């Protein structure tokens, strides 16, 4: 007999795990979540929330500085860090209270599968709780990947945790990785007073985006004074007194007070008992569109899975997963594409906002990824500064929009917006992509004057409407 028997046990109470439990519980199932660290996961304390709390003030100051007649004054770094603490104080009692208030059992400890529909939780004091559950959901998130750099384990390198919880901005920072974390943290730290060097082994920053987006962010970071080293890897790193000394592939050395490793993330599936159910530990769990991994009982969502490593996509998978578990518990058939039981947007319309200056807000395909997927596409671009709303938003507005049009169906399969304050513009594109709205109908979606959304009209005209 297990110590606890529930309909659903979720391993990992990050934003994604919490949402699965809530969705299933709200529809009448009993649910428990197992959490080894903080309820709320990486996103709340060490990732999305604190990083954006560091970025919003520097973004706002840059916008004000671009506007004649208003004066932002210098940044009060201590006040910025204090406000960050209000958002991301690593105390999870509020989130734990929310779970218990919602009627979801919280088991603090490390969860492992011990066989089909069976989980054991090892608590901090070494005691264990056995849980039997009709459904087991893996929502264990991810940890930073460690690139193969000699000496990296011995220099006290920062991960996203130290970077987002920092108490004092270091005089200098070398960042390994020019992906999303790398460019966001380069923006924040350079503008909060550190001298930043960014090392990226590819030829461009944020490689998954339209190439011009990476170039604009690079130009802006360089204008801020960030030293960007593209096309070179870090090969070795050592401490020399108070400094870290990084050796790059071209033989050059970079010295800085701290090193931040931002070289991607690895799904946390290595110590999860996956071998007890015939799965290989240490890899992202491959789930189908219904988020199912095995049979009708094992599911994977969020960063632990092969899906997009983004909070909003994980929470979308969580809603799908909760509804699938509920449907199966009621003996109902699962619906198809675009039902509540299929995470179809994972294949067609993943949105992401990168909070650099300029911001990059994109959804669906880039031109290159659409061609790689075998689509016949035409991409058109337009400078946002050339529409009245853009020129009013900022002098010399630096930014553009691109739409990728499937020429056979005449629908948009991807869009990218780059520039100041474009974050919220991407959702209109997400609706157009998911809705497969024909261009002939989009022509009647009239953007208000004078807003930056008028770029939609110019894009359609550029396409030939
Ligand atoms: C610096 C940074 C900034 C980011 N900014 C954004 C952003 O702006 N927008 C965005 O959409 N995404 C952002 N992301 C990505 C986002 O943080 C992740 O996609 C999101 O946290 C994934 O949620 P999750 O619940 O799957 O995993 P996590 O948040 O990692 O939570 C997993 C939880 O599972 C627990 N756990 C793991 N193993 C076990 C176990 N065996 N037993 C019990 N508990 C366990 C962990 O302690 C953790 O609390 C950012 C990431 C980083 C690193
Ligand atoms: N605003 C957001 O949505 C947001 C913000 C931060 C992070 N995230 C998510 O968190 C995840 C992790 O972000 P990330 O930036 O760590 O990963 P990433 O995969 O976006 O970027 C890692 C980068 O590091 C580079 N790299 C890897 N090894 C290297 C080496 N040895 N030397 C030099 N460069 C090297 C890669 O070329 C790559 O560009 C991503 O999935 C991202 O989407 C999202």
Short description:
With 465 residues, the protein is of the alpha/beta class. It contains 15 helices and 22 strands. Flavin-adenine dinucleotide is lined by residues 11-17, 34-38, 41-43, 47-48, 51-52, 110-111, 139-142, 160, 164, 181, 268, 272, 302-304, 309-312, 314.
Structure explained in plain terms:
There is one protein chain. By secondary structure, the protein is an alpha/beta fold. It folds into three domains: 4-40 and 92-143 and 266-343, FAD/NAD(P)-binding domain; 152-263, 3-Layer(bba) Sandwich (FAD/NAD(P)-binding domain), CATH 3.50.50; 358-463, Enolase-like, domain 1 (2-Layer Sandwich), CATH 3.30.390.30. Helix content is 31%, strand content 26%. The strands form five sheets. Strands 1, 2, 3, 4, 5, 6, 16 and 17 form an eight-stranded mixed sheet that branches. Strands 18-19-22-21-20 form a five-stranded antiparallel sheet, sandwiched between helices. A hairpin with a 2-residue loop joins strand 4 (110-115) and strand 5 (118-122). The model has no long low-confidence stretch (mean pLDDT 97). The structure holds flavin-adenine dinucleotide and nicotinamide-adenine-dinucleotide. The site of nicotinamide-adenine-dinucleotide has 26 residues, from helix 7, strand 9 and strand 18. It holds the Pfam family Pyr_redox_2. It is an enzyme of class 1 (oxidoreductase). This is Dihydrolipoyl dehydrogenase family protein. Keywords: FAD, Flavoprotein, NAD, Oxidoreductase.
């Amino acid at each position: 007999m297990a110590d606890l028997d529930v309909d659903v046990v979720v391993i990992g109470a990050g934003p994604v795990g919490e949402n699965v439990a809530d969705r299933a519980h709200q529809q009448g199932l009993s649910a428990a979540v197992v959490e080894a660290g903080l309820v709320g996961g990486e996103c709340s304390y060490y990732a999305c929330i604190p990083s954006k709390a560091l970025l919003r003030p520097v973004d706002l100051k840059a916008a004000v500085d671009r506007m004649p007649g208003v004066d932002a004054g210098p940044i009060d770094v201590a006040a910025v860090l204090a406000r960050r603490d209000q958002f991301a104080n690593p105390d999870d009692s509020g989130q734990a209270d929310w779970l218990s208030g919602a009627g979801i059992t919280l088991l603090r400890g490390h969860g492992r599968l011990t066989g089909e529909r069976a989980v054991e939780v090892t608590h901090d004091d070494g005691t264990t709780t056995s849980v039997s559950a009709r459904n087991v959901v893996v929502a264990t998130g991810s940890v930073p990947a460690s690139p193969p750099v000699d000496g990296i384990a011995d220099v006290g390198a920062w991960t996203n945790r130290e970077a987002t919880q920092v108490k004092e901005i270091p005089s200098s920072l070398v960042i390994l990785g020019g992906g999303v974390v790398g460019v966001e943290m380069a923006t924040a730290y350079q503008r909060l007073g550190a001298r930043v060097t960014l090392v990226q082994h590819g030829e461009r920053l944020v490689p998954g985006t339209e190439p011009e987006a990476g170039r604009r962010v690079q130009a802006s970071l360089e204008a801020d004074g960030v030293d960007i080293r593209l096309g070179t890897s870090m090969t070795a790193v050592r401490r020399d007194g108070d400094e870290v000394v990084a050796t790059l592939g071209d033989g050059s050395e970079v010295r800085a007070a701290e090193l931040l490793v931002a070289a991607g993330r690895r799904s946390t599936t290595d110590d999860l008992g996956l071998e007890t159910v015939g799965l290989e530990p240490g890899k992202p769990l491959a789930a189908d569109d219904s988020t199912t991994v095995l049979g009708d009982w094992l599911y994977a969502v969020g960063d632990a899975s092969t899906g997009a490593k983004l909070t909003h996509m994980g929470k979308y998978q969580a809603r799908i997963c909760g509804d699938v578990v509920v449907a199966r518990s009621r003996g109902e058939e699962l619906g198809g594409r675009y039902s509540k039981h299929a995470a179809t947007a994972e294949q067609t319309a993943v949105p992401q906002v990168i909070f650099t200056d300029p911001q990059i807000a994109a959804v669906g395909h880039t031109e290159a990824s659409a061609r790689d997927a075998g689509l016949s596409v035409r991409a058109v671009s337009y400078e946002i500064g050339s529409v009245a709303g853009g020129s009013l938003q900022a002098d010399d507005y630096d930014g553009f929009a691109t739409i990728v049009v499937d020429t056979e169906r005449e629908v948009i399969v991807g869009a990218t917006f780059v520039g100041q304050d474009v974050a919220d513009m991407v959702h209109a594109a997400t609706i157009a992509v998911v809705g497969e709205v024909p261009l002939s109908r989009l022509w009647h979606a009239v953007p208000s004057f004078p807003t930056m959304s008028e770029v939609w009209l110019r894009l359609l005209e550029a396409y030939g409407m």
